[in-house]
Specification:
By secondary structure, chain A is mainly α. Chain A is built from 14 helices and 3 strands. The chains are: A mainly alpha, B alpha/beta.
Chain lengths: ~325, ~300
């Protein structure tokens, strides 16, 4: 017992311990960052070619998770004339426009969304956790998730889990050292432990953050950048003043509709100021309502899904979410 | 060797504004032709674009500045860069023009024709030999438009081209539009021109609409292919087995579906049996474009 209170670490002067502790946290963070970098070496794999018929919903899901996927589906229905969005000062209401039209010409994911909309829904409901559209579309998103993980574009959950476990062990050691020093200091009659507590807390947060693998892999980000390069011109077309809102999808193309694809690739923010601006306004309101309920970069925004653990909630609003937290959510 | 080259089909000259439409319509484009010069001193962005294109399409590099007719020889720096690009792409063939673009180290900024003489032929043969040593991929040569004819010419243009292709063992990139424009501007019959060409050496075609300026035609690459040029195109397809054809549109880009329509017409001419059967069924249409659109 004497050894626990009478050893070089326990009796080390506070400032010197803080410097040592700082270095330990720093090197631990470097170690975790190294492990994280080692866990995602997908940038060495060959970059997937642009598919002949890219799926805008899958791309939106890759870019910003379930929320962005749901937004793209809603936009597709809006563009096809299956729904209308009525906005007033506070709310945005989604209603089916022509019940007969909805049965044909819709994909399975769009039909599921129409079923969810029913007679009417508020735009803010789209992102609600257990009853939202995001929840109804989960079977489709699960399929996208597994395909994208298989193609190494999304972080595999086992990879994310192993790095997280490693980070937690390191945090446990760092915190343990700090707690030991605090207890030893108190036992030795020193009560100036404030800086040690602060450093232990900050160090733990840093380590846990560094140990959080991004949801989209390096290869996934390269692929998204490649999609943006390939379809770069579309976003300018989408913003063209002459864009006709009731023009509907462009049937003359072999691939998907260009406007829907550009929403998938760049996010619905590119529609701001266009003839489809009404769609954006609706989700701005939805976001504002969500933010007033939950605060922060709300769940209405796809950008909240940037951490590895979840496709629909998390802490970081990283670049992988692209336009999701840009104009689409924020105008 | 030419007969061993793969049959690529019908494609488009890649131009940056067309990029999104090209990727949206991959299944309707058999291959792309890139302008080599745009990628010789490429920014990282252009290199990304190149690898993006390369992963989705067969690419044919088409260069502008080898200046095969320059008496001073080929610019070795340019040749090195081109060799690097062609090596990176590994295309079935690459192409340049039967012209010179540099003289005494000065860039003309224009594809200039040469007098059709033995001396000019010797220059071409020497330069092409050098290019072939440096770039081990099949080179094909394109006919250009010209506004001047040289009194010092010792032979006709088709005779010059025939000898050049034979002595260098190169294939030909026959620009149907250039042929038509030259025939109008210089007053000759393009069918007789074709009679004198070694058609078995024609590998690829270029086509696009011409631009009329008074009595003359200009290859502005800015218009829809007109019926007269489709006639030339069809005649070439009848006379030889084309490996590929490229629509060369540089300006005034229309809706992409219009370009796809033109490609579809070209595709029908290249697959000649189908094409002839269709024409026989319907009778020769007065306007090919309208037939394709109607179908």
């Amino acid at each position: 017992m004497d050894f626990l209170l009478d050893n070089p670490l326990a009796t080390m002067e506070g400032p010197i311990f803080l410097v040592l502790y700082g270095f330990i946290i720093l090197f631990s963070a470097i170690g975790v960052a190294f492990a994280r970098a080692h866990a995602d070496q997908t940038e060495q794999l060959s970059i997937p070619a642009i598919p002949p018929e890219p799926d805008p919903f899958e791309i939106a899901f890759l870019r910003g998770g379930s929320n962005e996927g749901a937004r793209a589906v809603i936009f597709s229905l809006f563009q096809k004339g299956s729904i209308q969005i009525d906005t007033d000062a506070k709310t945005a209401i989604i209603r089916p426009l022509q019940a007969s039209v909805t049965a044909s010409g819709l994909t399975n994911i769009e039909r599921t969304a129409m079923d969810w909309i029913g007679a009417r829904r508020e735009a803010s409901e789209v992102f609600e956790k257990n009853t939202g559209l995001v929840n109804s579309l989960e079977p489709f998103f699960a399929q996208y998730r597994s395909q994208l993980e298989r193609r190494n574009l999304l972080t595999k959950s086992e990879n994310a889990g192993s790095i997280k476990r490693y980070a937690k062990i390191v945090v446990f050691c760092v915190l343990g050292l700090g707690i030991y020093k605090i207890l030893a200091a108190i036992a030795n009659g020193h009560f100036n432990i404030f800086f040690t507590i602060v450093m232990a807390a900050i160090g733990s947060v840093i380590l846990l953050t560094v140990g959080n693998l991004p949801r989209v892999t390096k290869l996934g980000n390269i692929y998204l950048a490649r999609l943006k390069t390939a379809f770069d011109g579309l976003q300018y077309k989408s913003q063209a003043r002459g864009l006709v809102a009731d023009g509907g999808p462009n049937a003359s193309f072999a691939g998907p509709d260009p406007l829907l694809l550009s929403v998938g690739v760049f996010g619905s923010g590119i529609l701001a100021g266009s003839a489809y601006g009404n769609y954006n306004t609706a989700f701005e309101k939805a976001q504002q309502r969500q933010e007033s309920n939950s605060g922060g970069c709300g769940s209405a925004c796809g950008a909240s899904s940037c951490s590895s653990g979840s496709d629909s909630g998390g802490s970081s609003c990283g670049s992988g979410c692209g336009g999701g937290c840009g104009g689409g959510c924020g105008g | 060797m030419i007969e061993d080259l793969p049959k690529l089909g019908v494609g488009l000259g890649f131009r940056e504004p067309l990029r999104p439409d090209i990727f949206l319509n991959q299944s309707r484009l058999d291959f792309l032709e890139i302008t080599s010069d745009h990628y010789l001193d490429a920014t990282p962005g252009k290199l990304d674009e190149l690898s993006l294109l390369q992963d989705s399409f067969t690419l044919i590099p088409h260069s502008l500045d080898l200046s095969l007719g320059s008496a001073e020889g080929v610019d070795e720096v340019y040749l090195d860069k081109l060799a690097g690009l062609v090596g990176r792409i590994s295309p079935p063939w690459f192409s340049d023009h039967i012209c010179f673009t540099r003289s005494n180290g000065i860039k003309l900024g224009h594809l200039a024709s040469v007098p059709y003489t033995d001396e000019a032929l010797k220059v071409f043969v020497g330069n092409i030999q050098r290019v072939k040593e440096r770039i081990p991929f099949p080179l094909i040569l394109e006919n250009i438009t010209y506004d001047v004819t040289f009194p010092s010419s010792e032979m006709s243009e088709p005779r010059f081209i025939s000898r050049l292709l034979k002595e260098t063992d190169c294939g030909m990139l026959l620009d149907a539009t250039n042929l038509f424009i030259n025939s109008v501007n210089n007053g000759y019959d393009w069918r007789r021109f074709l009679d004198q060409l070694p058609m078995e050496r024609v590998v690829q075609l270029h086509f696009v609409g011409s631009h009329r300026h008074g009595e003359r035609l200009i290859d502005a690459h800015s218009n829809r292919t007109e019926d007269e040029i489709w006639n030339v195109f069809e005649e070439i397809c009848v006379r030889c087995d084309i490996k590929g054809a490229i629509l060369e549109r540089d300006e005034k880009f229309p809706d992409f579906s219009e370009l796809l329509d033109e490609l579809e017409i070209a595709r029908r001419f290249i697959r000649k049996e189908e094409c002839f059967a269709q024409i026989a069924d319907k009778g020769m249409p007065p306007n090919r474009s309208s037939v394709a659109l109607a179908e």
